[in-house]
Amino acid sequence: MKSWALTDPGCVRTQNQDAHIIRQLDRGSLLCVVCDGMGGAKSGNIASALAAEVFAQEVRRLYTGGMDMEAVDQVLERAVKLANFTVYDRSQQFEEFQGMGTTLVAALIQGRKVTVVNVGDSRAYVVGAYDIHQVTVDHSLVQMMIARGQIHPDRAREMPGKNYITRAIGTEPTVQSDLFHLVMDRGDLLLLCSDGLTNLVDDQEILFEVLHGVSRKSCCQRLVDIAKSRGAPDNVTCILVQG
Q1: Of 19-33, 69-83, 150-164, where does mean pLDDT reach its minimum?
Q2: Could you give all domains of the chain from N- to C-terminal order, each with its CATH number?
Q3: Sequence-ordered list of residues with C-beta below 8 angstroms from that of 239, at least 6 positions apart, any chain
Q4: What angle separates helix 44-62 from helix 69-93, to the nearest 10 degrees?
Q5: What angle do helix axes 219-229 and 203-212 make, rounded to 10 degrees?
Q6: What is the pLDDT of residues 20-42, one digit of tens each?
């Protein structure tokens, strides 16, 4: 199993409030996490780094090789709850951290079996030989409007308030996460990313770069470079995994 990752502050922000982690859990299992913090310059980076680390540590503590899907679900849900509690508790203890929060998307990869958990609008994609599939569903106002048929998905990037999310880690005492299960075909790749990428680079462009770029090793850099060539007002983070 090979993995590559890159995070970049982008073209406007001086501070990177994204965080990412890749951890080998055992010989056949890998954990990947991407968090996109919010709450201003003083706390967005704290929220994302804290959530990612607490989540990853709790998964490592609870996970054992060979767990079935139900057990993995419970591990990931407990790790999300602990990350949420930790960030929320920190925000209540210190005035400068009030209101901070973060998105979280993570994947626990066991061979070809993958369980994805998400809160917010950071995303997971599977890239196959011919197509790209978005695994997660954004917890955002725009996605809610799409689901209600109020706007067409093609208009999502043009909508004001497109970055308003309806769920986040650490903004409330409790949080609900979504779980997704998939089996990757041989040759498939998994991409986790923050919205700093997907707000500027569409799915077909991602597909092209992953499949037809110079090398997989440089794919994350190429994706970040495309976002930066378009102004990259937000931080940009991506993780690519090849089974």
Answers
A1: 150-164
A2: 2-242 (3.60.40.10)
A3: 3, 4, 5, 20, 22, 32, 34, 191, 192, 193, 220
A4: 140
A5: 140
A6: 999 999 988 999 999 999 976 67
